[in-house]
Design goal:
The complex is a heterodimer of chains A (about 60) and B (about 220). Chain A is an all-alpha fold and about 60 residues long. Chain A has helices at about 5-30, 35-60. In chain A, about 75% of the residues lie in helices and about 0% in strands. The chains are: A mainly alpha (about 60), B mainly alpha (about 220). At the A-B interface, helix 2 of A face helix 2 of B.
């Protein structure tokens, strides 16, 4: 099986969004700016949703 | 092998081999549909959480002074959480049972799951009555409306899950599921686990997250 088609890699795609989310929260916190909690929440949820989608794409297609 | 049985043969080497697959190795339609539905549900609840965190961050004090001591883990919310988490375990036991073709175990575990789901709803109803009596209503400003909107939508999802599991249980009692044919069981269990995870997030946010004295 190709490495990209393993479900743990789908989860990694979600982690990528979480990493961006962390930067999104930490940067304004360190800079003394306003933290956008709604945006941070949506980014985290998007990571979960994208992990689901990658999972579906990885496992929902026929195996060759 | 008949065409019908071949169409639902699990693919052992698949990364998601435990879920139902079609003959070519892709996910079965019910499981695929449920996963896509759950993606939309994730974003639906994300909107609610985002609104809550945004409102909470903008408020000078959270909970507002008038509602500082309303939400308690005991005697209702904590046990309700434990019951819902337990129901996820029994639901998974039911899935594992039907994968082994153990129909009695499947029906027994799924029946327990349905009962636990109903108990959760009863406890949540009791919590609503108690809070409403004490003065926390939908009219209680942004605090009351966010609380009832978030928990209410979740409760509606639990009710939907109980109905879904009830239909699956009924079909199971009619003998419609086996180790090879149980796509609906897999799909319903995915939904139930999702509802459970959402409640854990809700419970942690609403009941466990410490309040703020100032903004943010």
């Amino acid at each position: 099986m190709h490495l990209l088609r393993h479900p743990r890699n789908a989860a990694l795609l979600g982690l990528l969004f979480i990493a961006i989310d962390v930067v999104y929260v930490v940067a304004p916190t360190l800079g003394g700016g306003h933290v956008d909690y709604a945006g941070a929440t949506m980014l985290a949820a998007l990571g979960i949703a994208m992990a689901f989608m990658a999972y579906v794409l990885a496992s929902g297609t026929p195996h060759d | 092998m008949t065409a019908e049985s071949q169409a639902l043969t699990p693919v052992e080497h698949s990364p998601v081999g435990a879920l139902a697959h079609d003959a070519r190795g892709g996910l079965s339609n019910p499981v695929l549909g449920m996963l896509l539905f759950l993606v939309s549900e994730v974003m639906f609840f994300a909107g609610l959480f985002a609104a809550y965190f945004s409102v909470r961050a903008a408020a000078p004090q959270w909970p507002p002074a008038d509602f500082g001591d309303y939400l308690h883990v005991f005697p209702l919310a904590g046990p309700a959480t434990a019951i819902l988490v337990l129901s996820s375990f029994t639901c998974q036991l039911a899935v594992w049972s039907i994968r082994r073709d153990d129909r009695n175990g499947f029906i027994r575990n799924l029946a327990v799951t349905v009962v636990l789901g109903i108990v959760f709803l009863v406890i949540q109803g009791s919590d609503y009555i108690m809070l409403w009596t004490e003065g926390l209503t939908l009219d209680s400003g942004i605090y009351g409306s966010t609380f009832y909107t978030m928990t209410g939508f979740h409760g509606a999802h639990v009710l939907g899950g109980v109905i879904m599991l009830g239909v699956v249980l009924y079909r199971g009692m009619l003998g419609q599921f086996s180790a090879r044919h149980h796509d609906a069981v897999e799909a319903a269990s995915l939904y139930w686990h999702f509802v459970d995870v959402v409640w854990i997030a809700l419970f942690s946010t609403l009941y466990l997250l410490p309040g703020t004295a100032g903004g943010g």
